[in-house]
From TrEMBL:
Entry-linked InterPro entries: Asp_de-COase-like_dom_sf, Formylmethanofuran_DH_dsu, MoPterin_dinucl-bd_dom
Protein's name in the database: Molybdopterin dinucleotide-binding protein
Entry coiled-coil feature ranges: none
Domain of life: Archaea
Domain Molybdopterin dinucleotide-binding: 9-106
Organism encoding this protein: Methanospirillum stamsii
GO MF annotation list: molybdopterin cofactor binding; oxidoreductase activity
A UniProt-annotated Pfam family: Molydop_binding
Species lineage: Archaea, Methanobacteriati, Methanobacteriota, Stenosarchaea group, Methanomicrobia
Amino acid sequence: MTAKKTLNMITQRAVEEGIAMEIGKTSKEYFDACSIIEMNEQDMKELGIMKNTNVHVTSESGEVIVKAVVGRQTCYPGLCHIRQGVWANQVVPPRTQSTGAPQYSGFPVTVESAPKERLKSALELVQGAVGMWKSE
């Protein structure tokens, strides 16, 4: 049985993401910059997650496969980060608390190891979200 843990998700911006967005959201640079989850090393150890392997992230709003990396910024136990963008949007709750902006930070996600699962491209995720992706 795969270990699961509920963590507090915070989406964020990063320099690498900004540079990659200028290249294009379907570029390898954007994929590499944004299809990751930064986690605390202790949480990764507890879940049996090896660095740079895929994980399954689930929230009340959806799910996504991303690559787990040790937090590049301060990442305390129980906290995780996915850069704002296509992969994060799969799990961000639509609640706005009357602000007009979704709840990008401070929501629970469940994380579990998924080393054999494939990361989807930005195009697959966006088109899949609206029922337009036709798998091969």
